Amino acid sequence: MTTFKLLLLPGDGIGPEVAGEIGKIVGFLTSAGVGSFETETDLVGGAAYDAHGRPVSDATVALARESDAVLFGAVGGPKWDGVPYQHRPEAGLLRLRKDLGLFANLRPALCYPALAGASSLRREFVEGLDLLIVRELTGGVYFGEPKEIVTLESGEKRAVDTQIYTTGEIERIAAVAFDLARTRRNKVSSAEKRNVMKSGVLWHEVVSRVHRERFPDVELEHVLADNCAMQLVRQPKQYDVIVTDNLFGDILSDVGAMLTGSLGMLPSASLGAPDPETGRRSALYEPVHGSAPDIAGQGVANPLAMIGSLAMALRYSLGLGSVADALEGAVSDVLASGVRTRDIAPPGANAVGTGEMGDAVLRELKTRLARA
Ligand code: IPM
Ligand code: MG
Questions:
Q1: In this predicted model, what pLDDT tens digit does every residue of 260-272 receive, in sequence order?
Q2: Ligand 1: which residue has its CA nearest to atom 11?
Q3: Can you say how many angstroms the Cα of residue 24 is from the centroid of all Cα atoms in its chain?
Q4: Is the pTM of the predicted complex or chain greater than 0.70?
Q5: Domain that holds residue 42
Q6: What is the count of structural domains for the chain?
């Protein structure tokens, strides 16, 4: 039986609650003989800061490098509002992304038919929605230097963030988007602001060249990032794969997420480059929803984005695509049967807690794997 090394980083807020459901599922997969899942759990974010004064320790980064996949819950919360900027919980996540070279962030927005009514857009606009945002994750204004606040001679302060992209960074993220489009509806929309930003001019040029030289069979369109935000709420189903930079991707993926009815539904994958010799790549999987401190500790959080993140890990890191399909199918079955956590329940309807939702998915998964 193949051994898979998973590192679980539950983090803060609802992170530990939703990450708890992962243990149930990988426990079952091991007992069912799918593989031997070795899971280690460690601290990240505010929890790590409280324990060792850093939002992620060197030892944890080393563990992450050695694992086949990192499953990350969420970080942050008002408790850490006062900690020094470089040690805030989010810095732990940013360090993991940077140190592991996780440049490709895949954020699918899939609207389950059973949930189309929960979107803030009318059903006909979102039913059947299936788009994928490919966000560049280790460059741009998140990491560009200088990044500082300086005091001028006048006593006034000046803040600087720097947007930087190189040809190579754009080429590799564009290639990920085109490759994925070929497995879907074969269309890429590239979003930038070439009308005001030099980095947008280069982005447009490089994406066009990668398309011409390597992926002429894929349909490519260019869209200004602000227009893309507007189009996402006007007619989201026009999109298949959207490729964009780190900051625009942060914003557009929140829009994409909300189209589906709940932030609590959406998983994501952050992937590094495959090793040229082994083909192995660093990877971190996390729900898009964040730590939701307002509902933390109540056992009401929706674990489906975390479970969906495990499905992406099975598919992209562990070579278990059919098990990933079964797990996603199980989620769909559970939703079709009417089981709802609070965030996706219609007003006045009964809602289950985090653990019950995880159990319901596990039951359907067992049924599906027994049939297979
Ligand atoms: C995200 C989050 C992060 C980001 C934060 C927590 C640093 O908003 O993953 O979208 O801005 O990238
Ligand atoms: Mg974000």
A1: 877 888 999 999 9
A2: 250
A3: 21
A4: yes
A5: 1-103+272-372
A6: 2
